[in-house]
Amino acid sequence: MEMPVRFAGFLAYPFALPMNLHRSTLGFLFALGAASSFAIPEGVFVLDSINQSPFNPQGARAARFDQQMNFLGNSIGPGEASFQTPQVIAEAPDGTFLISDQLADTVHQYSEAGVYLGSWPTTIDNIRGITRGPDGLYYVANGSTNQIEKYTASGVFAGVFASVVKPWYVLFRRGGDVLVSSSRTTNESPVIERFSASGVPLGPWVSNYPFTQQMHELADGNVLVSVFSMSPAIGITSGLHEFSADGVFVRRYSIDGTRGCTELADGSLLATGGTRLVRFTRGNSVGTDIDNFGGTLSSNFRLLYNTNFPTLVRGTVSLQDFNGDPATVSMAYELRNSGGTVVQSGTTTLDSTGRYSFVTTQRGNLKIWLKPSHWLAASVSATINQWGAQFSPSVINGDVDGDNSVTIFDYIDLSSSFDLNNGDAGYIPGADLDGDDSVTIFDYIVLSNNFDVSGAE
Ligand SMILES: [Ca+2]
Ligand SMILES: [Ca+2]
Ligand SMILES: [Ca+2]
Fold it and tell me: Which residue among 35, 78, 104, 204 has its CA within the 20 to 30 Å range from the CA of 191?
């Protein structure tokens, strides 16, 4: 599916930058051979834009870490010749990376192995962030046109999303709105702007925050903002700032010249600031340098890309034949891979409207399996991406003993509790199928209606 688009893009490329014709053509052939079976490796990727030299042997690279911030090696570079001022990585089709490059005025593409494949045939000037949107297009902050522009993965212009003065980074939130940071200074009305998914302006999300760069939505809905510049004039200090979902300041984490930020699998926070890569325990303003990535003169760290930051599986469960409070219901959940192996399991609770969520760092095609206490399990095959996944099943009541089938054993348990109320000796809570705190003929009716039915395996 992607090949015709990629083909068109890379055919166009040599005409845009003829001096790189040979290299680009080789890269294109490599990309064809790589096919779509590759995905970029899981990890946390950090761009270092400092040129490689005898004094900076690790410059011009994309370093890769696991979620515990163990350094796994360089995915690109060091000494990557295509890097001028690489800003941010985006994941692209066929296991490739796209990297916006501010001074090169384009987006570069690299194979999974870190081989330069070519660059977008665009005339973008002063590009900042690049973000892959839910629609699969790439949202580019163009500092010369003051627009957020949409492109295909191969760099074909696909329209303007919104106009933003000095835009820096685009964040798509799980709820469907979009935040855009900017490099505007104190006297340029520096705000983080908010838009609908289709680019309708929704007003400032945060005001009086000069030169903000990467933003990240945490699993609990709070948002990290990298505040790059210092502006004592309006009382804002450079650092990693945390806000509530609706833009109320929560706290600041101490790291100067902050550019990049993300949440790691364990809920700790990671930020880049100039020469440092710092990890923070949530809520603790003083962080810890990552080993060999703290305060080195030979680094200039840019934005972060984390393939597996915590996100949410969420939805609303409709509890059939139930008049009680859904907030009293606990629910078991599992995520299973294509081989059927359980990769995550746990128990969560519903709220009074039946909503649930649980945090995951899993990505890809997985089966979501849910079993609320005395209801039968429901499952769905879903793709979990950075915005998580949603599953809102309606579930069948009647499984008193919780074995995921409605059978004679459920009748036996219900019978043993018959006519008892919540709190009575011998009362089995699971036998109160309709949630009125007593076991009556109405619970029998629910069970009878669903007799011999089993839940999703
Ligand atoms: Ca330029
Ligand atoms: Ca049962
Ligand atoms: Ca009942």
Answer: 104
pLDDT in the model for residue 49: 94
Are residues 403 and 375 part of one domain?
yes
Between strands 96-101 and 147-151, the pairing is unpaired
Number of helical H runs and strand E runs in the chain: 4, 33
Query: What distance in angstroms lies between residue 341's CA and the mean position of ligand 2's atoms?
Result: 24
Per-position DSSP letters for 402-454, written without gaps between them: SSSB--HHHHHHHHHTTT-BTTSTT--GGG-TTSSSB--HHHHHHHHHTTT-B
Domain boundary among 256, 282, 308: 308
User: What's the gap in Å between 394 CA and the centre of ligand 1?
Assistant: 54
Q: How far is CA 298 from the centre of its chain?
A: 30
Using the mean position of ligand 1's atoms as its centre, give its distance from the Cα of residue 123 in Å. 9
Q: What is the CATH number of the domain that holds 271?
A: 2.120.10.30
Contacts of residue 1, Cβ cutoff 8 Å, sequence gap at least 6: none
- Tell me how far the alpha carbon of residue 315 lies from the centroid of ligand 3, in angstroms: 26
Ligand closest in space to the Cα of 409: 2
Q: Are 87 and 129 in contact (CB under 8 A)?
A: yes
CA torsion angle 54 60 65 70 (round to 10): 10
Task: Report the C-alpha gap between 237 and 240 in whole angstroms.
Answer: 9
Tell me the CA–centroid distance for residue 322 and ligand 3, in Å.
9
Residues forming a β-bridge with 109: 98, 118
Angle at 110 between CA 77 and CA 277, to 5 degrees: 50
Q: Which residues of the chain have pLDDT under 50?
A: 1-38
- CA of 449 from ligand 3 middle (Å) equals 15
- Ligand nearest, relative to CA of residue 435: 3
CA of 68 to the centre of ligand 1 (A): 37
Read off φ and ψ for residue 308, nearest 5 degrees: -135, 40
Q: How far is the CA of 242 from the centre of ligand 2 (A)?
A: 46
Query: Ligand 3 centre and the CA of 448: distance in Å?
Result: 14
Domain enclosing residue 428, as ranges: 312-449
Share the mean pLDDT of the chain: 91
**pLDDT number for residue 12:** 33
Domain count, the chain: 2
Sign of CA dihedral 89, 92, 97, 103: negative
298, 316: one domain: no
